[in-house]
Specification:
With 445 residues, this protein is of the alpha/beta class. The protein has a domain of 63 residues. The protein has 14 helices and eight strands. The chain has an eight-stranded mixed sheet, with helices on both faces. Helix 4 links the parallel strand 1 and strand 2. The radius of gyration is 22 Å and the shape is globular. GO terms for molecular function: glycosyltransferase activity; ligase activity.
Length: 445
């Protein structure tokens, strides 16, 4: 077999900028951007203050413009300075176990196992499927498929409901140094496992997990999936790249990530939480360990095709963030970068609330010629947003080229994502925060 050369996503920079320097340079630029933004927007601020008082006006504009602008500027400069470290090896032989916790997935598990079998990974792959109380033929279909493919598969029946419980049951059967979690509806690119294992083997010893890049498979279904394609491709990917740069990826998502088995067992496995992967990742970070992100380790998942399912999923993610903040406070994190990254989540409810209850009503008023909140000044936010997405698009395009993938043409979805997506996401997140505060019943699907 002719092994490909190591991918070089960007020219090697002989002048190395330390991570801590990147951190403060990016913050310096973001602070400068905010100062300019405040100066330019003073007429807007004063006009709104005449209507609702200066403190309230500052609170509203801060939530819909100043702070988001600061965070976006920090993101843009960080991405410009980012350089993905090279692999020490691209063809590791380390045995690895894949855990699949599933319930009633007979229609999807066959495909998932076939894509695992088609991996170009030269090492041994052991699959442990935890059937979490299925009432269909999930286990039977998985067994037949594994036998036909010659795939190493062990099936465990776990009747106690809960994904966290199923994964912990599977963890007891893991004998390899590294374990990968994979959702039953997630399909792996043929090099996904190889790149994920390569990254964790190439990382420093204090890296205990690496999140893979999860993208959308069913984007052609309708307008909602078209928008989510860009959310995963640009939005979520950019956040993970930023967090990975500062060695504190905040979610090693259960859909596709790799962990050190000993680290998982040391923190007690997955917690009983609606956002079990978020709380788990923050527990790693609290222990002084680091979590990376590998953009070349690509997997494709099905995203919600109905608004109802989307609301359940994203409100669950918002609840998971609040759960993580309750369990581990940002100031309890030992690493400076992680203090900041987790600390940003403290202000996310404020940003979502102001967007939902101020910006959206302000947009309605603007249609009637009342520009108290939304007006010509808000257009100034768009160039920086488009710049950040352009940088991500260029990087993601280079990733796709290395993986022999093609970016789908989805122009409608892109503009809906840029112009309208936050108007869907913020209210849904607010609903998730309210659910968690009121301790409403958990809903996974």
């Amino acid at each position: 077999m002719n092994l490909p050369l190591q991918p070089n996503l960007s020219p090697r920079n002989t002048f190395y900028v330390p991570v801590v320097a990147k951190f403060f340079i990016s913050h310096g630029f973001a602070a400068l951007w905010m100062v300019v933004s405040v100066y330019v927007s003073l007429p807007w601020l004063y006009d709104l203050a005449d209507v609702i008082t200066f403190p309230v006006a500052l609170l509203i504009i801060g939530g819909i413009a100043y702070i988001p602008g600061y965070l976006n500027a920090f993101l843009v400069i960080s991405l410009i300075l980012d350089r993905q470290p090279p692999f020490k090896t691209e063809w590791p032989y380390e045995p690895v176990t894949i855990l699949i916790a599933c319930r009633n997935e007979e229609n999807k598990i066959v495909n998932t196992l076939q894509y695992i079998k088609n991996q170009d990974y030269p090492g041994d792959i052991h699959v442990v499927l935890i059937d979490n109380g299925s009432i269909d033929r999930t286990s039977e279909e998985a067994k037949i498929t594994a036998e036909c493919l010659g795939l190493s598969l062990r099936i465990i029946r776990e009747e106690v409901p809960g994904k966290f419980n199923a994964l912990n049951t599977g963890l007891k059967e893991v004998n390899t140094r590294y374990v990968i979690t994979l959702d039953a509806d997630t399909l792996l690119h043929q090099s996904a496992v190889r790149y994920l294992v390569s990254r964790i083997l190439s990382a420093p010893d204090d890296v205990c997990a690496v999140a893979g890049a999860v993208l959308v498979r069913n984007s052609r279904k309708n307008w909602l999936t078209k928008i989510q394609e860009w959310d995963y491709f640009l939005g979520i990917a950019s956040i993970k790249r930023l967090q990975g740069l500062y060695q504190g990826t905040l979610v090693a998502q259960g859909a596709y990530s790799i962990y050190k088995t000993d680290a998982l067992k040391e923190v007690g496995g997955w917690p009983d939480a609606i956002g079990e992967d978020i709380v788990l990742t923050w527990s790693f970070l609290r222990n002084g360990w680091k979590v990376y992100f590998e953009p070349l380790a690509v997997a494709f998942t099905d995203v919600p095709e109905t608004l109802t399912y989307y609301i359940k999923q994203r409100s669950r993610w918002a609840r998971g963030m609040i759960e993580a903040l309750r369990v581990t406070k940002p100031w309890q994190q030992p690493i400076l970068f992680v203090k900041y990254l987790t600390g940003v989540n403290l202000i996310m409810p404020y940003l979502d609330f102001t967007y939902t209850f101020c910006w959206i009503p302000g947009l309605v008023l603007a249609f009637f010629g009342v520009y108290w909140i939304v007006g010509p000044m808000t257009i100034l936010v768009l160039p920086l947003t488009l710049l950040s997405y352009y940088l991500l698009y260029i990087f993601q395009k280079s990733v796709f080229q290395k993986l022999n993938l093609r970016i789908r043409k989805n122009i409608l979805g892109f503009w809906l994502f840029v112009l309208c997506y936050q108007m869907i996401l913020s209210p849904v997140s607010v609903w998730g925060y309210i659910q968690e505060v009121l301790l409403l019943k958990r809903v996974w699907k």
